[in-house]
Amino acid sequence: MFKSFSRIIGKDKEGRCFRDCTIEQTPKHLLLEYRLYWEERKEMQRQLRSSLSLEKLFYTKKGREVLFLFLNKTEIATGKWLKAVGSLERG
């Protein structure tokens, strides 16, 4: 679950991303902006041969293919991802 949604349903006070990142954690932020995934985004751009946008990633066949690889590699929004990030926040 993304923190932006947790904020909406009252489970998170601010909905901010992780550690020192103060931006609201949304799918857009995690896919296109969050610095932790900079290298993986560069790889998506290389494979798409263009800049990234949510429209390209969700509404084109090639975009969905590279998005699947990105999500598989980063494990965003999986239980494993949440546990790893939770341990980072406590550390």
Describe this entry's structure for a reader.
The structure is a single chain. With about 90 residues, the chain is an all-alpha fold. It has one domain (about 5-90). Helices cover about 60% and strands about 0% of the residues. The protein contains 6 helices and no strands. The chain has helices at about 5-10, 25-30, 40-50, 55-60, 60-75, 80-90. Helix 3 packs antiparallel against helix 5.
Q: Tags for this entry?
A:
91 residues, mainly alpha, 6 helices
Domain count, please report it.
1
SS field, number of helical segments: 6
Q: What is the rounded Rg?
A: 14 Å
| Shape verdict | elongated
What characterizes the major β-sheet?
none
Strand portion:
under 5%
Along the chain, the helix and strand elements come as: HHHHHH
**Based on helices, strands and strand pairing, what is the structural class?**
mainly alpha
The end-to-end distance, rounded to whole angstroms, is 21 Å
Mean pLDDT: 80
Query: Helicity, in percent?
Result: 55-70%
How many strand elements? 0
Parts with pLDDT < 50 across at least 5 consecutive residues: none
